[in-house]
Design a protein that fits this description.
The structure holds two protein chains of two kinds. Helices cover 40% and strands 14% of the residues of chain A. Chain A is α+β, with helices and mostly antiparallel strands. The longest helix of chain A is centred in the last third of the chain and has 31 residues, at 139-169. Chain A is globular. By secondary structure, chain B is α+β, with helices and mostly antiparallel strands. Classes of the chains: A alpha+beta, B alpha+beta. At the A-B interface, α1, α2, α3, α4 and α5 of A face α1 and α17 of B. Bound molecules: FE2/S2 (inorganic) cluster (2 copies). One FE2/S2 (inorganic) cluster (FES) binds at residues 37-39, 42-47, 57, 59 of chain A. Chain B: It is an enzyme of class 1 (oxidoreductase).
Chain lengths: 170, 783
């Protein structure tokens, strides 16, 4: 089947088998290897990507279901050579060890942070409970997401202040 | 927050990890991320039966599927003399079944095809006719003389694999006879699985023209795998190139050689094309490297004051259908004889018997120095049983029995010499920090109100860093490790090691060790592991051995470089070598402040301006054979509250105080502890791989074999004491496995402590809520 999918802002047209899973489409057709496969029962979340802005387990979505849709993967987080705050803070706070869960974890975290920046520990733990990490024990992942939230809130505030300054100049 | 890699004197600092930039971008390169031109995929046909005769295998229909290139059965392998392979434990294991299958999910045939999907489809068309045999599931039954013999291939006509004993039997018995108090406890450490997030897999790429086999594999021990492969296949070792790319967690699962690997290699040898095999999670749990599965009985002889005298342990070890344990050759029960723990036992006697059953083969050292976890769990659990019997506080009993600081080096009755430790200090810190006295007060108040709160203590001693070559080998290969350092003309260096990390942060910590020794920064150093064509020979990363072995090698290798550098420095400073001293950052002329030269200048001179007659370059290799193992220890305290209605256990607090000797990177050490505690938590409360009476595996995936998510995982608290290892070049002891070894008993002790007013003295793991609920119900606490 022929599908057209926009991934990280770029449109791809491809021929896929109807049974091809989105995760293998991304990994093997588009060579985007960030989304990983860790299980066969939709438990681990290593394959998490955003489909139209919502986190999905791409091992449980068919590529054809993404036809005409927007997909965002870990490869889309960095903009113009600048790491997203959530990537930066995972690095700073030691939120990863083997790195295998990291892309999925980052996508879940990103989606949480898009909605709300001052997340409580409880909210974060619930928000990433679809993503298993076998290495870190989650403490530093929670810290990293909180720290990213603070950075994003500060940035937002700064932009707001700036636009107010510009606004008052009129 | 972590600090910059450009920091000089980086030892002991929380340097940001050098490996992270690729991982946070999704640019790690794990085994399944590699594709080679012309690559084929392999799928494995597995047995639905735990024990059955293979009547026939018909591959015709599967072979006709377009895109199928090759199907291999056990009979095909038998013709090549490859139907069986040696295990690391000195047993043999079927690669593909011939005659009969011995466990559910056993490998029966493989299909190699154009794509993952075609291989999977065709595998389902391989028609295997079985004749079911009764399954032998209970290891105690398997030991009985009239039990059916599972392994007809062996000369020995029973299911007994080995008997191993250590200690003084007669002396121990004498002490038990005269003991004032004896406690006895049966303790089971259930079958669990390391389950790293990335399953196992490989790509075998045989080039018929060059005769070279390149084998990409998720391996914790690439050099050892190359040697084993050379021995098994007859391929010359220098024509085998093993590449272990980024590994998505190992925890011991990626130490053994699995049948799938051998089949992928055979297929590539036959087809001359790259063959990829990536297992599914179900295959991972159901067929590769389980851990533990020990049935243990411990007895302690003590006096009325709780001073321990002797320890006696009897264990039945269920190894499944083949003894595929990954232990050093002389240790069929690993380092289980660390079982006297942190206590000054006068005498001990330990027996372990291994037995075959119709279950998946193993068991690997899951984040553990070969059965140390079972040992630590057993002694810490039994000490609590003793405390309970004598009505002595669990902390107090431990203080009464600790090996004292002055007793190190301490020879244990079971044959080890503990290097160093300060157990009192560590436990004191833990008790203070958690507020032990107040917690006990709170507990008493709650008990009076009919509420169940528990405090569990574990003061474990570990044994890691296998090992000194006089005692340790795997299939005859001595267990030292190695490092090679090349300092380039501009003062940057590459370090290559014989170990292979899987998330432990070697690219950073080993850079820190070498940077510290050479006066450089971690940013100046590139650490490479996992490529047998470039790295020096080593036995790999497991059993917390990297820092004790390769860490020592890296430091001593750097010192070897510094010796030569000193000569060059003297030449540059125009003084004699005796007048030069190293201050950690530069070479100085004694008594002449300001007259100094740094390592980068020396490095340049090594290639441009050498003293007369000196060999150019600045490189060294070091093979480090440690004189002893290292003995990290810790004091863990767990506080739980029990829901009277449901039996659910809430871990309110968990504090881990670890002593792993010198700390290279505190952030990474803390991260290791968080991770291991989470594994221990899963083991204590959630995980088991049970089999039904027909040998069906009842938890072959992550729906049934539960791994902790962020939601139920407690918030971990950590602290540390530092007792350097006296014999290790930088005093480090290794830490990776401590939290897995040290934590299960803290959880269990806490739950038993909570329920002790109801007369509970022991609960076997995993402590599911229903187990607690049944106890509460039996005692009328809930309906
Ligand atoms: S691969 Fe595990 S949830 Fe998708
Ligand atoms: S970092 Fe290894 S699974 Fe999360």
């Amino acid at each position: 089947m022929r599908i057209t999918v926009t991934v990280n802002g770029r449109e791809y047209e491809s021929e896929v088998e109807p049974r091809t899973l989105l995760v293998y489409y991304l990994r093997e057709h588009l060579e985007l290897k960030g989304a990983h496969v860790g299980c066969d029962t939709t438990n681990c979340g290593a394959c998490t990507v955003l489909l139209n802005g919502k986190p999905v387990k791409s091992c449980t979505v068919l590529a054809v279901q993404a036809n005409g849709q927007q997909v965002m993967t870990v490869e889309g987080l960095e903009q113009d050579g600048v790491l997203h705050p959530v990537q930066q803070s995972f690095w700073e706070e030691h939120g990863l060890q083997c790195g295998y869960c990291t892309p999925g974890m980052l996508m879940s975290a990103y989606s949480l942070l898009e909605k709300k920046q001052d997340l409580t520990e409880e909210e974060i733990r619930k928000g990433i409970s679809g993503n298993i990490c076998r290495c870190t024990g989650y403490v530093n992942i929670v810290k990293a997401i909180q720290s990213a939230g603070r950075q994003m809130a500060e940035k937002k505030q700064l932009e707001q202040n700036q636009s107010e300054v510009i606004g008052s100049g009129n | 927050m972590a600090i910059n890699q450009t920091e000089h004197r980086p030892m002991g600092k929380s340097i940001k990890r050098k490996e992270d930039p690729r991982f946070i971008r999704g640019e790690g390169r794990y085994i399944d991320d590699i594709s080679l031109p012309g690559m084929l995929y392999m799928n494995i046909v597995r047995s639905p039966y735990a024990h059955a005769k293979i009547v026939s295998i018909d591959t015709t229909a599967a072979m006709e599927v377009p895109g199928v290139h090759l199907i291999i059965t056990g009979e095909d392998l038998a013709k090549m003399n490859l139907a069986w392979m040696p295990t690391l434990a000195g047993d043999v294991q079927m690669v593909l079944a011939t005659g009969k299958v011995m466990f559910q999910y056993q490998e029966v045939a493989v299909v190699v095809a154009e794509s993952r999907e075609v291989a999977m489809d065709a595998a389902q068309l391989v028609a295997v006719e079985y004749e079911a045999l009764p399954a032998l599931v209970d290891p105690f039954r398997a030991m009985q003389p009239d039990a059916p013999v599972l392994r007809e291939d062996r000369e020995q006509k029973n299911n007994h694999i080995f008997h191993w004993q250590v200690g003084d039997k007669d002396d121990t018995e004498e002490m038990f006879k005269s003991a004032e108090v004896v406690v006895k406890q049966d303790v089971r450490f259930q079958r669990v699985h390391p389950s790293p997030l990335e399953p196992c897999g490989c790509i075998a790429d045989f080039n018929k023209t060059t005769g070279k086999l390149t084998w990409y594999v998720t391996s914790q021990a690439p050099h050892a795998h190359r040697t084993v492969l050379a021995m098994v296949s007859g391929l010359p070792e220098h024509m085998i190139h093993v590449i272990s790319p980024d590994i998505g967690g190992g925890f011991g699962n990626k130490v053994p050689v699995y049948p799938g690997y051998v089949c992928a290699i055979v297929a590539s040898l036959q087809l001359g094309r790259p063959v990829k095999w990536i297992e599914t999670r179900t295959e991972n749990i159901a067929s590769t490297g389980f851990a533990r599965d020990y049935h243990m009985t411990a007895e302690i002889a003590a006096n009325k004051d709780g001073i321990v005298q002797a320890l006696r342990v009897k264990t039945l070890a269920d190894h499944g259908a083949f003894d595929a344990a990954a232990d050093p050759s002389k240790f069929p029960a690993g380092l289980f004889n660390i079982v006297t723990g942190s206590y000054d036992f006068k005498q001990a006697f330990v027996e372990v018997d291994g037995v075959y059953t119709n279950k998946a083969p193993g068991g690997v050292a899951y984040r553990c120095s070969f059965r140390v976890t079972e040992a630590a769990y057993l002694i810490e659990r039994t000490m609590d049983v003793l405390a309970q019997k004598l009505n002595i506080d669990a902390a107090d009993l431990r203080f009464r029995n600790f090996i004292k600081k002055e007793q190190f080096p301490y020879p244990s009755p079971l044959g080890w010499t503990y290097d160093s430790g300060d157990y009192e200090q560590t436990l004191k810190l833990a008790l203070d920090k958690i507020g032990y006295a107040e917690l006990r007060k709170e507990q008493a108040e709650k008990r009076a109100r009919g509420e169940y709160m528990g405090i569990g203590i574990s003061t474990f001693t570990e044994i890691v860093g296998a090992g000194p070559s006089h005692t340790f080998d795997i299939m005859g290969i001595k267990m030292f490790d190695s490092a090679e350092i090349r300092v380039h003309p501009t003062g940057k260096a590459i370090v290559r090691l014989g170990v292979r990390h899987q998330g432990q942060g070697h690219e950073t910590t080993f850079a820190q060790i070498v940077a510290e020794e050479l006066g450089l920064s971690a940013a100046d150093i590139l650490v490479e592991e996992g490529d047998t064509d470039t790295a020096p020979y080593g036995l790999g990363t497991y059993a917390s051995r990297s820092t004790p072995t390769a860490g020592g090698a890296a430091a001593l290798c750097a010192r070897r470089i510094r010796e030569k550098a000193k000569k060059i420095a003297a030449h540059l400073l125009e003084v004699s070598e005796d007048d030069v001293e190293w201050d950690g950052s530069a070479f100085n002329v004694k008594g002449l402040p300001g007259k100094s030269v740094t390592m980068d200048k020396v490095a340049l001179a090594a290639y441009t301006n050498l003293p007369e007659g000196m060999e150019p370059g600045l490189e060294a290799t070091y093979y480090y054979d440690p004189p002893n193992l290292t003995f990290p220890h810790g004091a863990y305290i767990c506080v739980v509250d029990i829901d009277n209605g449901t039996g659910a256990v809430k871990v309110r607090r968990f504090l881990a105080v670890d002593d792993c000797g010198t700390v290279i990177n505190p952030m990474i050490v803390e991260g290791q502890i968080h991770g291991g505690l989470t594994e221990g938590f899963g083991i204590a409360f959630m995980q088991d791989i049970p089999y039904d009476e027909d040998g069906n595996c009842l938890a072959p995936n992550w729906m049934d074999y539960l791994v902790p998510t962020a939601l139920e995982t407690p918030h971990w608290e950590t602290d540390r004491t530092v007792t350097p290892s006296p014999h290790h070049p930088i005093g480090a002891k290794g830490v990776g496995e401590s939290p897995n070894v040290g934590s299960p008993q803290a959880f269990v002790n806490a739950v038993v402590d909570a329920l002790s007013p109801l007369g509970v003295t022991h609960i076997d793991m995993p402590i599911y809520p229903w187990k607690v609920w049944e106890i509460l119900r039996k005692n009328g606490v809930t309906e």
